Amino acid sequence: MKQLKKDIILANVPKNRINLDIFEEIDSTNEFLKKNIQSNEFNLVASEKQTNGKGRRGKKWHSPKKGNIYMSISTKNTFKSGPLSLITGIICTKVLSNISQTEEIGLKWPNDLVFNNKKIGGILVEKDIYANEEKTIIGIGINFNINGEENWWGDISELKIDDQRNVIIAKITSEIIKAYDKDHFDWVNQWENLCIHLNKEVKINNHDSTTEDGVFIGIEDDGSALIKTESGMKSFKSSEISIKGVY
Ligand code: BTN
Fold this sequence. Notes:
The protein has helices at 6-10, 29-35, 84-100, 165-181, 187-194; strands at 18-23, 42-47, 69-75, 106-108, 112-115, 118-130, 133-142, 201-206, 211-219, 225-229, 232-236, 241-244.
């Protein structure tokens, strides 16, 4: 396993705009950025291990020291070109696909990274105010090597790109900065092209534990899922439902 390396990560990112901290161990890279003053336009943190990694919906993110990516980027900027978490999903998928030369990595709504029908990565976007400073934090976890404690957890060990971890962090970071700088990002088409369950049957899990079947038709301009159900076409926000039946 190659160590996280500052010089490689910063090689192709605009150094005057970003501050980078690397840790051997940390509770959570998202929490670290929440608690610290934004020292540059973008602050990037990466760690070999997290002792309290956080997933979406209050879940834990299993974060052992196994050469995986645990990274977060914070910024005070507002993002003009679309929903940040979905755009970050597109960026991560494309970077991994380019480096591994495979098109087998895809997205499950709203922003799970999927390979071989298993979840190999996730994104947690948070907004926070600390010391009167408002910021957005984008947390990204990518599993290169993980013991599948749950049968839907996967990794990309078979793609043999673990020695490229620093380059992957660098590319994801520079693409996120580019996306920040853009006024427009054609993200709906790109997201739908990468979606692994477009026009397929999915199960809708409502938060009151009821379920409904439907066909995933696509996403709307705000990132909501458009699903055709027995009672008609419905639009759901990611805070309202999760979808099952994919893994
Ligand atoms: C999900 O549940 O799919 C989102 C997982 C996000 C995990 C990453 S790992 C780096 C960053 N720090 C955290 O504590 N969580 C995110």
